[in-house]
Every structure is written in structure tokens, then in C-alpha cells.
# Entry
Amino acid sequence: MTTELTIRETGEVVAISDRAKRYIRKSRADNTLRAYGAAWREFVNFARGRNENPLPATAITVVEYLTALADAGAKMNTIGVKLAAIAWKHRAAEVADPTVFEIVKATMGGVRRDLGVAPSKKEPATLTEIRAMLVTLPDNLRGARDRALLLVGFAGAFRRSELVALDVADIRFSRKLAVTIRRSKTDQEGKGATKTIPQIDDADICPVRALRDWLDGANIKSGAIFRRVDRHGHVHGRLTSQSVALVIKNAARKADLDWRSFSGHSLRSGFITGAMDGEASDSDILQQTGQKSDQTMRGYRKDTGAGAIRAVKAAFGQLEAK
# Structure
């Protein structure tokens, strides 16, 4: 077994095997590690520009960094990620974490009050928007792929990372579609989950039919389900998460929707919004979304006004008994 010497900035030398490092890297999602890595490099440049040590950093250096980010107009979520990256790097190096000091927490509290913490949510793609997007799709192989991606992504309330990770081995057709999720944002240990998508009577918006048409048309028997299609109609490798957002935005633009307000998350949020508008129960929606609690669900319900509408109808005596 090969090993590599890793030298901490404290001067201590530690031997870590390649296999051990592989498991350490898998403790966090790749996207998280990339974000932390980029944020850490930025903090190192900031600290060295002030002739200060980035590792271990002092609480004052972190406070000045947070202040500089806020003054430059960084969003609250961005600042939170960068602070988490500093804490992550210090814990990994087994040195004192400066982010735990009260002065850092007080600074973050002040930044939150100044910038606000309301998330900037993208527009949900509800069934109305999905129908408008579908009309714009070309009658070719790429159009078949995009139709399947939009409808399956919506019906399964998929995160875009889950959608592009699907393989043919993960699906089972019967009178409904069963989809196995091997790993997700909330299941980093890979315990797995199953989503169920029924056939829809309207063939134009049936996700099961759309997926069959795409797989048959592309002659995909195994491996990745959603793949790149070039301008000549040739099918290539697996789509990326970013590709999902591009498909949605492109279809929204052609449908004369405000395409800038849509994202890769719009299919998932659109399903939740539509299911709430249809007065599906929170427990039923959670079964499809795979969320661990209804805390996030309450945020969507607040955005759609579904709860407020029922409350007003109840106050006016117009709420039908279930």
C-alpha cells in the first residue's frame, strides 16, 4: 500500500495511505469539497495580502475577512460557505478553529441583520410552465430527451444531481415507474430510496411514456439514462448537473417565460408547489421529495400562499370539509 507524506503547516509530518485519503474525500460531496477548496484559496490570498497566517488564522483575521466580503456585496449564503470552509480547513489540520470565537459569531450576526437572510429562490416550474416548455421542444432525439428530463424531473421531484446520476439499472417499468435513488444530497452514505411515478392519462405530459420514448429512440439499454445529444443526433456521455439547468432555461426562453428566474431546482420546487396547490398532504409530498422533515416544506407552503388561502376561506366559511 502506497503512502504519501502530508506536512501540516504546524510542521508535523503525518503518513496517510492513498486508500485512507480516498475515504476522507468521500466524507463530503464532491461539489461541497470544490466549493470549500475555492473558498479556502480565497481566504489564503486575503490573509497573505495582510501578511497574516491563514492556518492557523486568528479570529481577528476571520472577522476582517467577513467584513470585506460583506462590504463587497457578497450574499449571506456565500459568506456562510466561505466561513464553513475556514472551519473545515482548520479542523482537518487539527488546529484551533477561529470561527468558534464569540467575536466571529457576533460579526456574522451583524452581517445577517444588515444583509438579511431571506433566500433568493428561483421560479418553480409548475405544470403550467412545463406544458409551455414542452410545446417548444423539437421533434427529434434531443427533443425526446428534454421531454423525458422535464417530465421525469418534475414528477419525481428530483434534484438535478439525482436526475443525471440515474442509470437504466435504477428504473423498473410496469404500470408505473419505480426509480431507485442510489445516493442523494440528504443520503451521502448511499442507503438508497425509491420514487414512484404513475402513468398519466394525458399522453402529452406522461413522464413514463416520455422516458420510454427517449430510451427507445436513443437505443439506450444500459448505463446513463440522460445523455448528451450533438447537433447531428449522435448520443454521447452522461449529462452534467449544469446541463439540467441549461435545458430548463432554454425551454423557458423559447416559451417566452422569464428564463433567468428558472434553475435546475425549478422542477423539484415546481412539483412541491403544484402538489400543495392541489392540496396533497405534506406526508405524501415528503414521500416523493425524500426530505427528512417538513421544515423546508413549510417554506414552500408559505411561498405559494396555500395555507393562507385555506385560512381565509375558512374564515369566510367557504372551506369545504374533507
User: Anything to note?
Assistant: Confidence is low (pLDDT under 50) at residues 1-13. The beta strands are 3-7, 13-17, 171-173, 176-181, 193-198, 227-229, 235-238. The chain has two domains: 3-115, 127-310.
